[in-house]
Amino acid sequence: MFGYTLLFVIGYLAFAQAQTLNDTSAVLAPEPGMWRQGRRRSVLADSCTTNSGTTGTCLTRFKCMRQAGTVNGYCGTYGVCCETNLQVGATTRQKRVIIKSPGTLPSDLMTYTIEAYSTNVQQLRIDFEQFEMQQPTDTDGVLECQDYFEAGGFKLCGVNSGQHLYLPFIAASGVEQVSLTFAVPSGSTGTNWRLIVTQLEGPPPSSKRRFSSSTGIGASTNSLQDLRDIFASHHADYELLAPPGCQQYYMGLTGTIRSFNFQTSTTSNYMPDLSYNICIQSTTSASMIEYTFSQFSLSVQDGTSEGYDEFCHATVHTAGRQEDYLMIPQSILAKNMAYQPTYYCGQNENLVVYGKLGDFFVAIGIYNYVYLNSAASPPYIMHFSSDDLTLDRTAETGFSLTYRLRNSLL
Predict the structure, then answer these.
(1) Is residue 7 exposed (0-12), middle (13-18) or buried (19+ Cβ within 10 Å)?
(2) What are phi and psi of 123, to 5 degrees?
(3) Alpha helices in 195-306 (DSSP H)
(4) Which contiguous run of DSSP H or E holds residue 111?
C-alpha cells in the first residue's frame, strides 16, 4: 500500500511540475490528461447535444470555464454541455475542439493549428457539422475553388455540411501539428462553418517511456506528456479509428454516402483532382454489402449514358482523356450479375451494386491495418477519383447512395 501511495504522490508532483512548465499564453492550455483519461472511455462518451441542437463536449462546469467555453445545456449526472470555439490564428492541444466561423471575417486567410494531444495520437477526424462556402467557378473548363478549406492536401469548397474527413496525424513519427486553413478572398457573407475536430489515439507503438534513468519519473523532461501517454494507452479511441488510408469511414450497418459538394436541390459539382478512399466497417455477421444509388452522374469518355471499366479508366495514360470514376473492387452489377466491373462512370440514377470483401485493400495502400481482435475484417472500400477537367457541369455532379451490410443476396 505504501508503494502505491508513493507512486501516486510522485506522479501528482510530476503532474503539478509539468503543469507549471507548460503554462503559456501562446497556446491554449490542454486539459490535464491524467484525470480526464482515467475516467474517459472514448471521445464518444464526451459528446453531447446543446440546447441549440449543435454538438458540444460534456465537461464539468469548471473545465468548461477553464477552456473559455460556454455552457449550453446539461449532460451526464453533473456535467454541462460545453461549447468551445478555437479563435482564428490560435493553437490548441485539446483532444476535441470546435471551430466556428467568426461573425466578421478578420482576413482573407484564416488558420487554425492543432497540436498533438499525446504521442498516441494517430488520426485527426474532422466533422463538418456546417460547411457553406462559395461554389467552385469555371474558367475555360477548369473548375477552381476561389474560396476554400484546406487541410492535409485536401481542398474543399461549396456545401459539405454533414460530411467528415480523416487525416493521418501520427505524433509518434514526429508529426507535431496539423493546420486547418480557410481562404475567403471573395469576402462572401454566406460563408459559414462549424467543425468538430477530434484527435484519435491508438495503442502506443512502443512501451518505452521518456523517463530519465538516473532521476526517475519526477525528472522527466516532459512529465505531463509522459503521464498523458501512460493513461491514454488504456483508453484509445478504438471505435472511431479508421483503417490507415481511409479518408472517410462509415461504421453503421446502413448509411448514406455522398460525394463532396453533392446537392439534391440544385446543380453542383464535385471538385477536380480529388482522390480519396471511402471505407465502411465490416462485421462478422455480414458477408457482402449493397450500394443503392439515388443519383450517379460522372463524366464518361465516349458520351454514353453509363460507363464501366475501360470507358472510365484507361490502362494507358492519355492526355486530355476524361477519367472521373468511382471504383468499387470485387463488385457485381445487380441488373446483370454476370457483369462484374470495377470502375463506374457516366449517368445512372437506378444503379444497384453488390460488393464483397477481399484483398484489394492491400493494393490501394491500406496495408498497415492492425486489427483489434481476431474476428475483425478489412473494410469495404470505394475509391473516388476526378481529373483536372470539367467539360460538362450538368453531368459532373457526383453521387448519393445508401449502403447496407447483408449476409446474402436473398
Answers:
(1) exposed
(2) -145, 155
(3) 223-232
(4) strand 109-115
What's residue 215's pLDDT? 39
Query: What amino acid is encoded at 100 in this protein?
Result: K
Contact between residue 303 and residue 395 where contact means Cβ atoms under 8 Å apart: no
Residue type (1 letter), 348: N
According to the model, what pLDDT value does residue 157 have?
Answer: 96
Rounded to an integer, what distance in angstroms lies between the CA atom of residue 89 and that of residue 27? Answer: 10
Q: How many residues does the chain have?
A: 410
Cα torsion at 135, 141, 142, 145 (round to 10°)?
Answer: -10
- Which strands, in side-by-side order, build the sheet including 148-151? 91-92, 109-115, 177-183, 148-151, 154-156
What is the identity of the amino acid at 403?
Answer: Y
Report the candidate in 260, 247, 249, 267 with the shortest Cα–Cα distance to residue 400. Answer: 260
Q: Across-strand partners of 354?
A: 290, 332
The pLDDT of residue 303 is: 63
* Residue 330 grid cell: 470485387
| Strand, coil or helix: 4 | helix
CA–CA distance, 212 with 164 (Å, rounded to integer): 41
| pLDDT (mean) for 200-216 | 54
21-29 contacts, C-beta under 8 A, 24 or more apart? 21/224, 22/224, 26/91, 27/91, 27/92, 27/93, 27/115, 28/67, 28/68, 28/86, 28/90, 28/91, 28/92, 28/93, 28/94, 29/66
Query: pLDDT digits over 329-386, tens only?
Result: 989 999 888 989 999 999 987 899 999 875 443 333 333 333 333 234 689 999 999 9
Q: 3-class SS at 198?
A: strand
More confident of the two residues 306 and 134 = 134
How far apart (Å, rounded) are the C-alpha atoms in residues 87 and 71?
A: 17
CA 371 – CA 263 distance, rounded (Å): 36
DSSP state of 405: E
